[in-house]
Amino acid sequence: MARIGILTCSNATQDLGCSSASCLADFRKRRGAFADYSKDEPLDLVGIINCPGCPTLTGADKLLQRIRALTEFRVDAIHFTYCMKALCPFKEKYKSALEEAFPNIKIVIGTHVEHVTTEEYRERVKKLFCQPRKTMVDMILGKD
Ligand code: SF4
User: Fold this and answer.
1) In b/e form, how buried is each residue of 3-25, taking b as 16+ CB within 10 angstroms?
2) Which residue of 14, 107, 132, 134 pairs with 138 in a disulfide if CB–CB is 3.0 to 4.6 A?
3) What CATH number has the domain bearing residue 93?
């Protein structure tokens, strides 16, 4: 039995509303990064948590606190989601920091099957972020 935790990017989950449906579908179907586990080994999803946000001056410290939501529950591996793989400029630093802090936990970069190139994925995410959106400012200014 492999006990697995998943770390998502908060830009994708909190800002852009991803429910991790693709990651979880491929977890169930053992595709993408989950195909690397032996077919005889049952997979148990222990938990999912999002990154606490881009680290500014704190480096990996913020993440090391937050990842306790997974590490306190006997996980064997933590997967960084595909969105982290494609978007996060800190992923390798995070991976090293987690490997140092939790030497018995395998850190894997990736979850679901990659359906488009990384470049195309980044372009599409960029478009989502850059689309005009009405906010409270528009309401205050009577432009809603
Ligand atoms: S640090 Fe990386 S994973 Fe966390 S919110 Fe920023 S881009 Fe996403």
Assistant:
1) bbbbbbbbbbbeeeebebebbee
2) 134
3) 3.40.50
Ligand 1 binding pocket includes 97 (Cβ within 6 Å): no
Residues of the domain holding 85:
2-140
- Is this structure's pTM higher than 0.85? yes
CA distance linking residue 122 with residue 114, whole number of Å = 12
For residue 91, the ligand 1 atom closest to its alpha carbon is 2
> Which residue of 88, 93, 98 sits with most ligand 1 atoms within 8 Å of its CB, as the best mutation to test the pocket?
88
Residue with the smallest CA separation from ligand 1 atom 5 is 53
Query: Hey, whose CA ends up nearest to atom 2 of ligand 1?
Result: 88
Give residue-wise pLDDT tens across range 96-129: 999 999 999 999 999 999 999 999 999 999 999 9
